[in-house]
Design a protein that fits this description.
By secondary structure, the chain is of the alpha/beta class. Helix content is 35%, strand content 19%. It has a 7-stranded mixed β-sheet, with helices on both faces. The protein has a two-stranded antiparallel sheet with strand order 5-6. 38% of the residues are buried.
Length: 228
């Protein structure tokens, strides 16, 4: 008898037997009414998961795909952004933004350490052209949990758009998107949702949606306007 393989990674994680059994059922054709009803229900529940009244979009992509969708739909070439990094996936924001021609300033401390809020405020005050703040809720590479509520307050007071990679922490750590004044957040199916890998999702608030309509970066598959 084959020994059961058990996952102890941050993601993909172990799935319940009920989920694995459900995957053996025939799939819905995506043009059928039944599929549309399921999709609408899932989006409704994802809003509750993010604690948001904003728009939610689901992609057949990894969490990195959702992160890139956030960048594509917000930035224009030569925009300026601040990245608050706690590890490998915080740095991924920086790498993506560079690819889209964005000038990146950074608040970065040794892995596992959180930069003081005063340093974040100082960076923003010294560069009025910074439009966006990109950061991570829970940094997979270190387990570092960020003070998103505090960053959200600073971002709103200084009129910046806050984008949060919540892929690792969403559903495991506290995260209240609207209450904490987060403008865009992304997640994925294979983490705390304990579902099969391959789906990611992005929640978009009202302030961010206005920025999405003005962004100039090329986009197609990940274009929020098409999904809307």
């Amino acid at each position: 008898m084959k020994k059961r393989y058990i996952l102890f990674t941050p993601g993909p994680v172990e799935m319940a037997r009920e989920i694995i059994k459900e995957m053996n059922e025939p799939i819905f054709y995506h043009r059928e009414k039944g599929f549309s009803e399921i999709l609408a229900e899932v989006i409704k529940n994802l809003r509750r998961f993010f604690f948001t009244k904003g728009k939610v979009f689901i992609f057949t992509a990894s969490g990195t795909g959702a992160m890139e969708a956030c960048v594509q739909n917000l930035v224009s070439k030569n925009d300026k952004a601040l990245v608050i990094s706690y590890g490998v996936f915080g740095n991924r924001w920086k790498e993506m933004l560079w690819r889209y021609g964005v000038y990146v300033d950074e608040v970065s401390y040794p892995y596992g350490q959180s930069p003081p809020m005063e340093e974040i405020v100082r960076k923003l005050k010294t560069n009025d052209e910074i439009k966006y703040i990109f950061t991570t809720l829970t940094e997979t590479s270190t387990g570092m949990l960020a003070d998103i509520e505090g960053i959200g307050q600073v971002a709103r007071e200084m009129d910046r758009i806050l984008v949060v990679d919540a892929i690792c922490g969403l559903g495991a750590d506290k995260f209240y998107m609207d209450k904490w004044q987060v403008d865009i957040a992304c997640g994925a199916s294979q983490k705390a949702l304990a579902s099969p890998p391959g789906l990611s999702f992005v929640a978009v608030g009202e302030r961010a949606w206005e920025a999405v309509t003005k962004a100039k970066s090329p986009r197609y598959y990940f274009d929020f306007r098409i999904y809307d």
